[in-house]
Amino acid sequence: xxxxxxxxxxxxxxxxxxxxxxxxxxxxxxxxxxxxxxxxxxxxxxxxxxxxxxxxxxxxxxxxxxxxxxxxxxxxxxxxxxxxxxxxxxxxxxxxxxxxxxxxxxxxxxxxxxxxxxxxxxxxxxxxxxxxxxxxxxxxxxxxxxxxxxxxxxxxxxxxxxxxxxxxxxxxxxxxxxxxxxxxxxxxxxxxxxxxxxxxxxxxxxxxxxxxxxxxxxxxxxxxxxxxxxxxxxxxxxxxxxxxxxxxxxxxxxxxxxxxxxxxxxxxxxxxxxxxxxxxxxxxxxxxxxxxxxxxxxxxxxxxxxxxxxxxxxxxxxxxxxxxxxxxxxxxxxxxxxxxxxxxxxxxxxxxxxxxxxxxxxxxxxxxxxxxxxxxxxxxxxxxxxxxxxxxxxxxxxxxxxxxxxxxxxxxxxxxxxxxxxxxxxxxxxxxxxxxxxxxxxxxxxxxxxxxxxxxxxxxxxxxxxxxxxxxxxxxxxxxxxxxxxxxxxxxxxxxxxxxxxxxxxxxxxxxxxxxxxxxxxxxxxxxxxxxxxxxxxxxxxxxxxxxxxxxxxxxxxxxxxxxxxxxxxxx
RNA sequence: UGGCCGGUCGUCUAAGGGUAGGACACUAGGUUUUGGUCCUAGUUGUGGGGGUUCGAAUCCUCCCCGGCCAACCA
Length: 572
Hints:
- The chain has 3 domains: 3-270, HUPs (Rossmann fold), CATH 3.40.50.620; 282-351 and 480-569, CATH 2.40.240.10; 356-470, CATH 2.40.240.10.
- Helix content is 26%, strand content 22%.
- The chain contains 13 helices and 25 strands.
- Strand 1 (40-43), helix 2 (53-68) and strand 2 form a beta-alpha-beta unit.
- Helix 2 (53-68) packs across helix 11 (315-325) and helix 11 (315-325) packs across helix 12.
- The two termini are 39 Å apart.
- 38% of the residues are buried.
- The protein binds one RNA strand through helix 5, strand 6, helix 7, helix 12 and strand 19.
């Protein structure tokens, strides 16, 4: 399927894709010659956690804008708080961005690269009378700041002589004072309606070892000071961030305008991504990991990029998803179904079809010779004739899906039931003649007869069977483990009605099937590769796979219209 | 209660004074050796009241609702 086929005029008139407000802004800026006709963006993660699907939106936006308008996009680690940051996160962030398909070339930067320059500018602000060293403690600073409805009061140190501030600042840097003793603050407006402008902190004392600068620094810059100036240093033209930074923009501009920078970046805010049935905040993700609710940052139920990769998501699916959701300034929550749609769309086009029985039930073909084996050619992918075929062995004893047999078949049941005939995919028609039970009365085996004339799955007399089942030759079956993942949360909006996150957990979000039966071809699929388990869904080979054990993660199920139908039939 | 931002189908997102369109979801049908895919059709929307205008989702006004801001986090 080619999207251009849908256009009546074909390839020559692709439907014009609407532009989002950021693209419009960039085009306008380019047309007006702002920033010298340059476009330069950046993706600025703090290395204090793993990237998630929300970051993917930002990465696609920033790198996409650069790509589409002949610009560049930097990777910059916003490492201004050594307490939270870890080089392990730096590496995971690099890996995730590369996985998404983006390349920052030689432009990997760190805010810590700029500590000297930032310090110089802080000194500049003090000399200009625009910053001062304050001795209020944390609690006092909060009190003096006032509230959203009341103006703040000036710090008693606000008018400290410049030379004194300069001296104190230098000694702060040298490590002469304990943490919390002093701060450097911008002198702006304690009565500003915008709380961010009430003499915000520029530096705080931290006797911490930074993962890149070691113990060289005893003071660390705050985000609002470091971020905008880092943008200026790098010649960023468009600094894109999420909506909650709207109020910070006034401060952003203040620092850029009051420091002798040689480049003028502009901040623009867009709505962050929210998804139903999951949580996106680092705090909540961290809680799930640390309380052992999930098995780590790469747990396939998490929306972290490493989790999604392990779940079997593809970068292509994430890309088309990001493209489709757009970029706007409205707070929004995207339905998980949309993400899953793009995932199925991608996987449907390329995942090889294989047959795996998740809940095995023995099926014996009584009129098929015991010592015989046939080999059928199984189509790898009906969506892609070029994908070829693979060999599929067939014999007298097979495994079929327990759920494909019903003693008392409901209405519109196309599958196995006493006396019913079905097609075994690529093989023969079989008819269920007898049901074998154990002493507890449980069905343990189906005895069937096959029609030799139906070889390949068609009968010469043209009779139709509605049901086509997947199966695995018992003698040739490969054992494997399937991990069936579903949403971590039962609620579309966890915590929505004052519920605690943990109350919304689905206890069945992971169901392990340790003894599945797969056709032999599956043994050759490599870790990280995706396949479709016929009639079940898309699965990916998990890294836990080794010589003794093959593990498959369910990425996403196939749509199941029978499940819907059955639900509808039931009450009536 | 102060400031700022924002409200278009169930969910996202277009239309920027001139036919409210697309995608997902949902419903019904068709095709099918996956109850998958694919195809066809359909339901559903401009938060509310005033105003300007031949004409308003779009401009003005009042109201309502939602989000963000009072870390030495980012």
